[in-house]
Protein backbone atom coordinates (compact mmCIF):
# COMPACT_ATOMS: atom_id res chain seq x y z
CA UNK A 1 0.00 0.00 0.00
CA UNK A 2 1.52 3.32 -0.99
CA UNK A 3 2.11 6.24 1.32
CA UNK A 4 -0.82 8.32 0.00
CA UNK A 5 -3.35 5.58 0.82
CA UNK A 6 -1.97 4.91 4.28
CA UNK A 7 -1.91 8.58 5.20
CA UNK A 8 1.77 8.42 6.10
CA UNK A 9 3.81 11.57 5.42
CA UNK A 10 5.99 11.53 2.35
CA UNK A 11 9.12 13.53 1.63
CA UNK A 12 6.94 16.35 0.28
CA UNK A 13 4.49 16.36 3.24
CA UNK A 14 5.34 19.02 5.86
CA UNK A 15 5.46 17.81 9.44
CA UNK A 16 3.59 19.92 11.99
CA UNK A 17 5.06 19.44 15.42
CA UNK A 18 4.50 21.22 18.74
CA UNK A 19 6.63 24.17 17.60
CA UNK A 20 4.14 25.10 14.88
CA UNK A 21 1.32 25.08 17.42
CA UNK A 22 3.23 27.40 19.73
CA UNK A 23 3.94 29.84 16.90
CA UNK A 24 0.28 29.85 15.87
CA UNK A 25 -0.85 30.45 19.46
CA UNK A 26 1.65 33.28 19.88
CA UNK A 27 0.42 34.93 16.67
CA UNK A 28 -3.20 34.66 17.81
CA UNK A 29 -2.36 36.22 21.18
CA UNK A 30 -0.49 39.05 19.46
CA UNK A 31 -3.43 39.84 17.18
CA UNK A 32 -5.85 39.78 20.12
CA UNK A 33 -3.59 42.11 22.10
CA UNK A 34 -3.35 44.54 19.20
CA UNK A 35 -7.13 44.63 18.83
CA UNK A 36 -7.51 45.27 22.55
CA UNK A 37 -4.96 48.06 22.42
CA UNK A 38 -6.79 49.65 19.49
CA UNK A 39 -10.02 49.83 21.48
CA UNK A 40 -8.23 51.08 24.59
CA UNK A 41 -6.39 53.74 22.60
CA UNK A 42 -9.60 55.69 21.94
CA UNK A 43 -10.44 56.62 25.56
CA UNK A 44 -6.77 56.96 26.46
CA UNK A 45 -6.19 59.36 23.57
CA UNK A 46 -9.26 61.39 24.57
CA UNK A 47 -7.99 61.57 28.16
CA UNK A 48 -4.53 62.63 26.97
CA UNK A 49 -6.00 65.39 24.80
CA UNK A 50 -8.18 66.65 27.64
CA UNK A 51 -5.24 66.85 30.04
CA UNK A 52 -2.77 68.43 27.63
CA UNK A 53 -4.87 70.38 25.14
CA UNK A 54 -3.30 68.33 22.34
CA UNK A 55 -5.19 68.53 19.05
CA UNK A 56 -7.21 71.53 20.19
CA UNK A 57 -8.91 69.67 23.06
CA UNK A 58 -9.79 71.88 26.00
CA UNK A 59 -9.00 71.34 29.67
CA UNK A 60 -11.46 70.80 32.51
CA UNK A 61 -11.28 72.91 35.66
CA UNK A 62 -13.19 73.10 38.94
CA UNK A 63 -12.18 76.55 40.17
CA UNK A 64 -11.78 79.93 38.52
CA UNK A 65 -8.35 81.61 38.48
CA UNK A 66 -7.69 84.09 41.25
CA UNK A 67 -6.51 86.86 38.93
CA UNK A 68 -7.24 88.32 35.53
CA UNK A 69 -4.85 90.10 33.21
CA UNK A 70 -5.30 93.12 30.99
CA UNK A 71 -5.76 91.21 27.75
CA UNK A 72 -8.95 90.50 25.82
CA UNK A 73 -9.51 87.65 23.37
CA UNK A 74 -12.51 87.18 21.10
CA UNK A 75 -14.10 83.75 21.50
CA UNK A 76 -16.18 82.58 18.54
CA UNK A 77 -18.70 79.75 18.80
CA UNK A 78 -19.33 77.07 16.19
CA UNK A 79 -21.87 74.21 16.08
CA UNK A 80 -22.22 71.14 13.87
CA UNK A 81 -24.46 68.06 13.69
CA UNK A 82 -23.26 64.74 12.28
CA UNK A 83 -25.37 62.93 9.67
CA UNK A 84 -28.05 60.72 11.16
CA UNK A 85 -28.89 62.97 14.11
CA UNK A 86 -32.20 64.86 13.63
CA UNK A 87 -31.18 67.87 15.71
CA UNK A 88 -30.95 71.58 15.16
CA UNK A 89 -27.89 72.78 17.08
CA UNK A 90 -26.44 76.28 17.12
CA UNK A 91 -24.77 78.82 19.41
CA UNK A 92 -26.98 81.52 20.92
CA UNK A 93 -24.17 84.03 20.47
CA UNK A 94 -21.72 84.09 17.59
CA UNK A 95 -18.87 85.54 19.67
CA UNK A 96 -17.98 87.35 22.88
CA UNK A 97 -15.09 89.37 24.22
CA UNK A 98 -13.37 87.56 27.07
CA UNK A 99 -10.85 89.03 29.46
CA UNK A 100 -8.10 86.51 30.20
CA UNK A 101 -8.76 84.90 33.59
CA UNK A 102 -12.42 85.97 33.63
CA UNK A 103 -15.13 83.30 34.00
CA UNK A 104 -17.75 83.53 31.27
CA UNK A 105 -20.93 81.67 30.32
CA UNK A 106 -22.18 80.99 26.80
CA UNK A 107 -25.24 79.11 25.59
CA UNK A 108 -25.97 76.65 22.81
CA UNK A 109 -29.46 75.69 21.64
CA UNK A 110 -30.43 72.16 20.64
CA UNK A 111 -33.79 70.95 19.32
CA UNK A 112 -34.84 67.41 18.46
CA UNK A 113 -36.70 67.43 15.13
CA UNK A 114 -37.79 63.81 15.55
CA UNK A 115 -41.03 62.68 17.17
CA UNK A 116 -39.22 60.20 19.42
CA UNK A 117 -36.39 60.58 21.97
CA UNK A 118 -32.88 60.75 20.55
CA UNK A 119 -29.47 60.49 22.20
CA UNK A 120 -26.22 62.25 21.33
CA UNK A 121 -22.67 62.97 22.47
CA UNK A 122 -20.74 66.14 21.68
CA UNK A 123 -17.10 66.28 20.67
CA UNK A 124 -15.25 69.58 20.85
CA UNK A 125 -12.05 71.35 19.96
CA UNK A 126 -10.46 74.76 19.94
CA UNK A 127 -8.65 76.53 17.13
CA UNK A 128 -5.86 77.37 17.00
CA UNK A 129 -5.04 73.97 18.49
CA UNK A 130 -2.27 75.29 20.71
CA UNK A 131 -4.79 77.49 22.54
CA UNK A 132 -6.70 74.41 23.71
CA UNK A 133 -4.37 73.96 26.69
CA UNK A 134 -5.36 77.40 28.02
CA UNK A 135 -9.10 77.12 27.34
CA UNK A 136 -10.60 75.67 30.53
CA UNK A 137 -14.21 74.54 30.83
CA UNK A 138 -15.84 74.32 34.25
CA UNK A 139 -19.30 73.29 33.09
CA UNK A 140 -20.34 71.86 29.73
CA UNK A 141 -23.08 69.79 28.10
CA UNK A 142 -20.27 67.87 26.41
CA UNK A 143 -19.31 66.23 29.70
CA UNK A 144 -22.14 63.71 29.43
CA UNK A 145 -24.56 62.19 26.94
CA UNK A 146 -27.58 64.32 26.07
CA UNK A 147 -31.14 63.04 25.62
CA UNK A 148 -33.90 65.06 23.98
CA UNK A 149 -37.54 63.99 23.87
CA UNK A 150 -39.41 64.25 20.59
CA UNK A 151 -39.63 67.93 19.63
CA UNK A 152 -37.83 69.05 22.79
CA UNK A 153 -35.72 72.22 22.77
CA UNK A 154 -33.07 73.01 25.38
CA UNK A 155 -30.57 75.76 26.14
CA UNK A 156 -27.23 74.32 27.19
CA UNK A 157 -24.63 76.40 29.06
CA UNK A 158 -20.86 76.36 28.79
CA UNK A 159 -18.88 77.94 31.64
CA UNK A 160 -15.24 78.61 30.83
CA UNK A 161 -12.21 80.83 31.23
CA UNK A 162 -8.91 81.43 29.46
CA UNK A 163 -5.97 80.55 31.69
CA UNK A 164 -3.78 83.61 32.44
CA UNK A 165 -0.77 81.35 31.76
CA UNK A 166 -1.45 81.98 28.08
CA UNK A 167 0.41 85.27 28.50
CA UNK A 168 3.64 83.32 29.00
CA UNK A 169 3.31 81.40 25.72
CA UNK A 170 5.43 83.23 23.16
CA UNK A 171 3.73 81.42 20.28
CA UNK A 172 0.35 82.87 21.30
CA UNK A 173 1.37 86.37 22.32
CA UNK A 174 -0.41 87.87 19.30
CA UNK A 175 -3.50 85.65 19.53
CA UNK A 176 -6.68 87.67 19.10
CA UNK A 177 -9.36 85.05 18.41
CA UNK A 178 -10.21 81.55 19.66
CA UNK A 179 -12.92 79.40 18.07
CA UNK A 180 -14.77 76.86 20.23
CA UNK A 181 -16.40 74.21 18.06
CA UNK A 182 -18.81 71.39 18.95
CA UNK A 183 -20.17 68.51 16.90
CA UNK A 184 -23.02 66.30 18.11
CA UNK A 185 -22.99 62.64 17.06
CA UNK A 186 -25.80 60.08 17.43
CA UNK A 187 -25.50 57.80 20.46
CA UNK A 188 -27.10 54.46 21.18
CA UNK A 189 -30.14 54.41 23.50
CA UNK A 190 -29.25 53.25 27.01
CA UNK A 191 -29.68 49.55 27.69
CA UNK A 192 -32.95 48.74 29.50
CA UNK A 193 -32.68 47.95 33.18
CA UNK A 194 -33.04 44.36 34.27
CA UNK A 195 -36.43 45.03 35.83
CA UNK A 196 -37.71 46.50 32.60
CA UNK A 197 -36.45 43.54 30.62
CA UNK A 198 -38.11 41.04 32.93
CA UNK A 199 -41.36 42.95 32.86
CA UNK A 200 -44.23 42.73 35.31
CA UNK A 201 -45.03 39.05 34.84
CA UNK A 202 -46.47 38.59 38.31
CA UNK A 203 -45.60 35.98 40.90
CA UNK A 204 -45.26 32.35 39.99
CA UNK A 205 -47.12 29.69 41.86
Automatic annotation (TrEMBL):
One Gene Ontology cellular component annotation held by this UniProt entry: plasma membrane
Organism phylogeny: Bacteria, Pseudomonadati, Pseudomonadota, Alphaproteobacteria, Hyphomicrobiales
UniProt KW Membrane keyword: yes
Family: Belongs to the COX11/CtaG family.
Keywords of this entry: Cell inner membrane, Cell membrane, Copper, Membrane, Signal-anchor, Transmembrane, Transmembrane helix
Purpose: Exerts its effect at some terminal stage of cytochrome c oxidase synthesis, probably by being involved in the insertion of the copper B into subunit I.
Organism, scientific name: Aquabacter spiritensis
Periplasmic side: 42-205
SUPFAM superfamilies associated with the record: Ctag/Cox11
Membrane topology of this protein: Single-pass type II membrane protein
Pfam families hit by this protein: CtaG_Cox11 (PF04442)
Compartment list: Cell inner membrane
Transcription is among the record's keywords: no
Protein name per UniProt: Cytochrome c oxidase assembly protein CtaG
Gene Ontology molecular function: any one: copper ion binding
GO biological process assignments: respiratory chain complex IV assembly
Topology feature Cytoplasmic, residues: 1-17
